[in-house]
Amino acid sequence: MKTIKDVASLAGVSVATVSRALNKSGYVSEKSRLKVETAIKELDFYPNEVARSLYQKKSKLIGFLLPDISNPFFPLVAKGIEDKMNQMGYNLILGNVQESSDKENEYIRTFSQNNVAGVLSAVEGGFRNMKGMPFVMLDRVASNKEYSVYSDDYQGGSLAAQAVVERNPGEVIVMVGPRDISKSLVRSAGSIKVLEENNINYHLFETESFQFESAEKAAVHLLEKFPKANSIIASNDIHALAVMREAIRKGIKIPEELQIVGYDDNPYSKLMYPSLSTIAQPAYQIGYKGAEILCARIEGKPIKEKNVQLPVTLEIRESLRKKDKDE
Ligand code: RIB
């Protein structure tokens, strides 16, 4: 691997001049800069990132703490982050916390030891121990005190309930996401408000997690507990797909006997047959916008909006019945 000394020797300048040119710090004449660039190209030289980060005490790395990498929602957020960060010359380190506080602390330590320039976290409460690193909270944002980007859960819960109410709702089940994640309660509150305004009876069905592992068991339990359910407002698409599978296995017709609306619009939802109606979250934009704010924080640039709430939309597909008036 070529070193900075090789570049200096070929360019006919000092190592200090090459270092200033690489780190864009201090004066370098146009003539010297051109000679350095030519030498870098000829030697196919690239700076040693660890050495550079030790020199600058900040790497070009960004940490992203996420709760569950197997849930398709989070890779979409990561893609938005990566696209923006790559534009700004940063690279991403993923910290898949898998909802374990020990892993969360371990990744925060790793980020700090690697001199990351900043951290994005979709882990609820993740802001508590950022060890002084600049950060932005994404998606699972418990309070508006911190820099954050998230989508409108109350609107999402309301849209899901409205979609069911307009389609001969019958017996309605509202799946409540894990109560230790504040957005679960905001979504359910949005649904409950619409159901009660329309005098629709409903039952709440608690779920312990958003993850695949618990969704299949929850689906079996839900259809055993509510065998006559006609409408289900699911806590996320993974649960909605698990309920659809269990209903089809039991010979229940979707949407004629049981209609279902999910939450997230993960890429698999439109591939299911029947395709899953759902609340689409702007996952990519949450990541991209969060990365934009974090870059501004790192570079000390002004930030117009500290807390950004993005709208959600209802994606109507085959798992919802036709609207009453359409019949
Ligand atoms: O499906 C996973 C859920 O957790 C999503 O609704 C997303 O908002 C995340 O917080």
UniProtKB/TrEMBL annotation:
CDD domains: HTH_LacI, PBP1_Qymf-like. It comes from Carnobacterium antarcticum. Residues 2-56 form the HTH lacI-type domain. Keywords: DNA-binding, Repressor, Transcription, Transcription regulation. This is LacI family DNA-binding transcriptional regulator. The keyword DNA-binding applies. GO terms for molecular function: DNA binding.
